[in-house]
């Protein structure tokens, strides 16, 4: 077990964890180096049994990954108030990364030669089964990619650059969390922001109604509430402030682009860093990514404009801009609520308890996990002791009685021993985002039968959120739980290519697919309840309408960030990398990415809509066949090598950009908020692949069947459990 599992479940305290991390890291590196040395220069060189070599390599990878995964989780969620623990985690991650980038991969050509001998020796190769051959191919690919670098000084430069990038990433994210956000607002503008405490704090400082004063937001999430103001000028001020705060991050982005260009162009001899990273992924795109993005924008724009017109006519907003979308989502919901008192079901049908029930139901139905266990763990950071309680009910009762040093977790134990830990409640010094990581990967079947995977799911719900969850919060939990299942259900022969070890362009598909089931009434009715009764189909359709009317607009935002990530990682040898270059890139992308830039002002609002008219609008928006056709065309653009260029829609040719909207994008620094540029390592387009693939998988396999038939889809279950091995062998079949 990894040391994080030990400290959460076996009596280790946070205060005393730092030396344990340092000791285990040192011990793991010593054992790993000894194993590699034995393979490459010791008695086991050219071992007659090829499986021995493969198993030893997988074992080294397994032990090192357990340490680095655990260190990362502790660093992000537990170490902020313990400097020694924080430093121990950083040192651990750096030391493991240096080992993988040094003796294990870059400098060890004997290891590559050993594997190539196995591959070319017919006698040895014939002893391998398909999973063995897949591992052999995967390791050779990884070693080949690293060992393309022949010059020792370039190897050192690569390691130095990667270390600098890690430091830049930490500073970038630290700026996002610590920078203070400010807005200059009048009294009425401040009052329009849904934050009564903030208004009470500043209302005495206004001398007149038109007086503007500087409002300081203590927390970033308090600042982001400003985007829900009903006053367009406030939303515009918010967007400008949000885009242009964190100015110190501009220099970090420039430095990152320079370091990555060195890695891609000077060290790996590729056209760009993106070109180098794309070659390491599993799915080969049918055409250049920039071209695919433009074609997808053309495909979805006619329908996106129709959706915008519907939104505009329902809400009565005279003008719609990119930064209005969050407010309009809430206004659409408010419109639905105003039409029928029963519509309150849309806001109250989900609480934390029935949402957890939905996650358990999903696991049981899709994956035939009939003997799930759900426990509550209360970990005491001072004593190291963990109290274990069965079920969710007890957890809910004691939630408000927790002491400051007590950390509540939910534990899901799957039938075959895989575990999911849900760390879903806010606490100071915790990573403030939704994320799922590997706490412990599965043990290879030949080596450790008892090492089952442990996934660690992070959210930041406040205690008050447990009463009612928004649909967005439910989607986030299902999304992260999809990642957790992808880890917890892993059943590959080797951990080297198990589910969490898939390439970035594949790892997001299960999480997005899990979200899709929230659109199926036959599934949701079993846990979404109002007054102890299932939500009605009529109310469910209204709930989903409020989401799906924005589906293509959300996809446009994904396309924008995909293009931004592509551009920032595609600088070639002689390209200028400076502040103006970043501003020009971002301005052009913002201008061309969003259909709202093409929408004229003042669409006539609908007259007083009756329930029949509302139902007609909902029915037209929720037409699955129309959406299925759009996503089928998008999928062809991304993956079909034989598909010719998508012709531009005739209606798109007549569109005119609304010039008054483009001023918002001049000198825009929105890239200073784009933390995914670090996390996805030039593969943010994996999010686009996941959105497209999961939507198509769901529509092709599940849209017309009841929840009782879900478990018949063995191929989909394998998508979660077989990792990269399944992805490469059977992806096209699905």
Q: What structural category do the secondary elements indicate?
A: alpha+beta
Termini separation comes to: 34 Å
User: How many strands in all?
Assistant: 10
**Helical percentage:** 55-70%
- Biggest beta sheet attributes: 6 strands, mixed
Q: How confident is the prediction overall: mean pLDDT?
A: 84
Order of strands in the sheet with the most strands? 4-3-5-6-8-7
Low-confidence segments: 648-652, 727-734
**What's the alpha carbon Rg, rounded to whole Å?**
26 Å
Number of domains: 4
The coarse overall form would be globular
Total helical segments: 34
Into which percentage range does the β-strand content fall?
A: 5-15%
Structure, described:
The structure is a single chain. The chain is an alpha+beta fold and 734 residues long. The chain contains 34 helices and ten strands. β3 and β4 form a beta hairpin.
């Amino acid at each position: 077990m990894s040391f994080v599992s030990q400290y959460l479940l076996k009596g280790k305290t946070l205060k005393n964890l730092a030396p344990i991390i340092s000791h285990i890291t040192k011990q793991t590196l010593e054992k790993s180096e000894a194993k590699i040395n034995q393979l490459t220069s010791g008695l086991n060189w050219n071992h007659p049994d090829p499986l021995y070599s493969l198993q030893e390599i997988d074992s080294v990878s397994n032990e090192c990954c357990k340490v680095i995964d655990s260190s990362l989780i502790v660093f992000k969620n537990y170490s902020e108030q313990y400097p020694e623990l924080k430093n121990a985690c950083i040192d651990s991650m750096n030391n493991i990364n240096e080992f993988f980038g040094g003796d294990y991969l870059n400098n060890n050509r004997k290891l590559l030669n050993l594997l190539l001998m196995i591959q070319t020796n017919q006698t040895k190769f014939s002893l391998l089964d398909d999973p063995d051959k897949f591992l052999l191919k995967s390791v050779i690919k990884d070693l080949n990619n690293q060992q393309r670098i022949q010059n020792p000084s370039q190897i050192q430069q690569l390691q130095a650059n990667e270390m600098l990038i890690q430091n830049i990433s930490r500073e970038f994210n630290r700026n996002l969390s610590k920078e203070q956000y400010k807005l200059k607002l009048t009294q009425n503008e401040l009052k329009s922001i849904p934050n009564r405490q903030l208004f009470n704090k500043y209302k005495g400082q206004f001398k007149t109604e038109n007086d503007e004063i500087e409002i300081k937001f203590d927390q970033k999430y308090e600042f982001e509430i400003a985007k829900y103001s009903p006053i367009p000028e406030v939303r515009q001020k918010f967007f400008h402030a949000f885009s242009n705060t964190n100015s110190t991050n501009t220099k970090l982005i420039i430095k990152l682009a320079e370091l990555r260009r060195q890695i891609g162009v000077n060290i790996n001899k590729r056209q760009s860093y993106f070109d180098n990273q794309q070659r390491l992924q599993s799915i080969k795109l049918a055409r250049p990514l920039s071209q695919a993005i433009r074609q997808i924008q053309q495909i979805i724009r006619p329908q996106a404009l129709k959706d915008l017109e519907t939104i505009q006519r329902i809400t009565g907003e005279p003008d719609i801009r990119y930064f209005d979308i969050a407010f309009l989502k809430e206004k659409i919901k408010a419109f639905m609520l105003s039409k029928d008192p029963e519509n309150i079901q849309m806001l109250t049908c989900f609480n934390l308890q029935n949402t957890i029930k939905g996650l358990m139901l999903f696991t049981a139905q899709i994956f035939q996990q009939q003997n799930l266990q759900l426990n509550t763990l209360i970990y005491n950071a001072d004593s190291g002791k963990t109290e274990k309680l069965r079920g969710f009910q007890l957890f809910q009762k004691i939630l408000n009685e927790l002491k400051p040093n007590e950390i509540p977790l939910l534990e899901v134990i799957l039938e075959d021993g895989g575990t999911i830990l849900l760390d879903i409640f806010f606490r100071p010094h915790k990573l403030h985002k939704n994320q799922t990581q590997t706490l412990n990967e599965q043990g290879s079947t030949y080596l450790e039968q008892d090492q089952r995977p442990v996934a660690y799911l992070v959210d930041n719900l406040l205690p008050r959120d447990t009463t009612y969850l928004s649909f967005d919060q439910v989607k986030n939990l299902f999304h992260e739980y999809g990642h957790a299942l992808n880890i917890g259900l892993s059943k590959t022969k080797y951990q080297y290519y198990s589910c969490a070890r898939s390439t970035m362009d594949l790892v997001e598909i299960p999480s997005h697919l899990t979200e899709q089931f929230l659109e199926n009434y036959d599934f949701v009715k079993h846990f979404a309840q109002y007054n102890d009764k299932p939500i009605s189909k009529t109310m469910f359709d209204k709930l989903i309408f409020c989401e799906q009317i924005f589906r293509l607009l959300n996809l446009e935002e994904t396309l924008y960030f995909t293009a931004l990530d592509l551009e920032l990682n595609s600088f070639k040898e002689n390209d200028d990398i400076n502040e103006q270059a970043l501003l020009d890139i971002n301005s052009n992308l913002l201008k061309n990415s969003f259909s709202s830039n093409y929408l004229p002002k003042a669409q006539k609002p609908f007259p007083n809509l009756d329930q029949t008219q509302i139902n007609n609008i909902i029915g037209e928006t929720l037409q699955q066949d129309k959406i299925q056709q759009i996503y089928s065309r998008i999928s062809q653009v991304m993956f079909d090598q034989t598909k010719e260029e998508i012709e531009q829609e005739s209606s798109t040719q007549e569109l005119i950009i609304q010039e008054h909207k483009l001023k918002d994008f001049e000198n825009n620094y929105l890239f200073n908020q784009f933390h995914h540029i670090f996390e996805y390592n030039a593969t943010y387009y994996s999010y686009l692949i996941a959105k497209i693939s999961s939507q198509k998988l769901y529509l092709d396999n599940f849209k017309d069947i009841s929840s009782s038939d879900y478990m018949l889809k063995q191929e989909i279950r394998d998508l979660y459990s077989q990792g990269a091995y399944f992805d490469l062998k059977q992806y096209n079949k699905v």
